[in-house]
Every structure is written in structure tokens, then in C-alpha cells.
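Give me C-alpha cells for this 288-residue protein.
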Amino acid sequence: MTKNHLTVNGVDLAYLDEGKGDPVILLHGFPDSSHLWRHQIPALVGRGFRVIVPDLRGFGDSGKPQEAEAYTMQTIVNDVVALSLRLGIQRAHVVGHDWGAAIAWMYAFLTPRRVDHLVTLSVGHPGVFASQSIEQRAASWYMLFYQFPGVSEELLRRNGWRLFKEIIGREGDHDRYIRDLARPGALTAALNWYRANRSPAAELAGPRAFPPVYAPTLGIWSSQDRSLLEEGMAGSGKFVKGPWHYERIDGVGHYIPIEAPDQLNKLLLGFLGTERAAEPERRPRRRL
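Here you go.
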């Protein structure tokens, strides 16, 4: 599969565009790239979907601005909107994992008419995360560690990336992650996702109100996820006005698309194209 490139929202985005039919946008998280979805792309294309898979800004072969403010969730949602418009897509199924799930949630409630079905893996609705338990805070301790520019980078790289390897473990594409993050500017760009969106200052700002999600939504969580507890995904249904479905995959770690590709593909193909929610009421357009 050959990557294409477009400049959108001031950044070069690399992306895959495979197949024909109803579009599906797949959004990866940290520290991944479009490579995360290699098992889902052929399964979806084989069932008649058009699959668009970007390397989100800061990752893979896309541009890597070095300023933390370039990575706010709203900015990245704008990237996805701009890319889809450039590709002639008005409405799509949206699937996200990890940070990609957080972006997918936000994309769904900020641009409800652009989302057909929503699937989020591992990361629940941001409204749940805003009131997380002490157990969840302990599990996501690394988010605080990533807040220190220069210091985090130095410690993660030291002794052959020893600390990074301890944090990631043997999950996902662990060897590939180090090769990708060793590119010039790549580690700072990746950590800036946390610095822009999970900083102590953002915590002090307190919880915010979120519009509801109207799209039929499938939330998927895996029982061996060391960083994200079940509470985040299981509690997300209260933010969804469309049909809500929750699936738990047992015995699988955080990187569901790689660790349980057959189970995930079955869930995706069984869910996409099912019933649609009622159209959201019209209201003034939100500025992104």
C-alpha cells in the first residue's frame, strides 16, 4: 500500500486511501501510525468499504511541528475534517484507537452530520475521563511524566530506550515504535499530544460540558489493558444519544487491532452499516 500526501491545516499528512464504497476513517493513537490498521484495511476493503487511514500529525510520515500548541485535539479534529473534505467525503464511519479514539469522540460530537457510525477502542468518552477514579489516575501516571519538555525525551532515550521499553512492554509494534520515534523531532512531536491536552493546567480548568453523540456507537475495551481501566469505556454510554453498544475482549492488551485482529474485524464488519441514529437537531454551527 502506497501512502499519499496532502497539506491540510498547515501540515503535511500522509495517508492511505484503499477501496471503493462507503468511507471508513481509521485513526491511530500513541505511538502508532497508519501501520496499526494493517489487519483491518484488507478486511474492510474486501467487504466493499473505502478505507482512509492517515498518519496523524506528529506520527509516521506526516509533518511533525515541534510546538505543543500545534497538537490540541481541536486542531487534530480539524486535520481530519480538512483531509476528508479534500478527498470528497461528506460523511463516513469513524474508528479510533487510543488518542485516535479521543479524536473520534470529539469529531463525532463536534461534526455530528459527518459521522455515520462511530467505533472507539480503549479510550472512553472524554466526559468520563474528566472524572476518572484514583485507580485510573495511577494507571495513567506516564501522562504526568510526559509533561516535561526535554527531560522526558532524555530519560526515554537513555540506555537504549530502556524506560520507554518498560512503559510500552512487549505490546503492539514495540520495536517499530522506537525506530519511528528515533526520527528527528518525532519523540517531541508524539509527546506533545499529552502536553497539549493532558497538562496539569488542563486538569485545573475542570470538566467541561460535551454535546451528545448521535451516531450509533460501538465502544470496545480489552481486559489486559494496563493503562486504561474498564470504567472509561463502560461509562461512555451516557454521552451517546444514538444506539450504544459495548464489547469487552478478554485476555487482550491495549493494542487491540494488532493483538486481536480477527475479533476486531468481526465486530467492525458486524456493526458498520447497521441502523442509523436519528438526525441531530439543527443548531448553529460550532467553530472548530
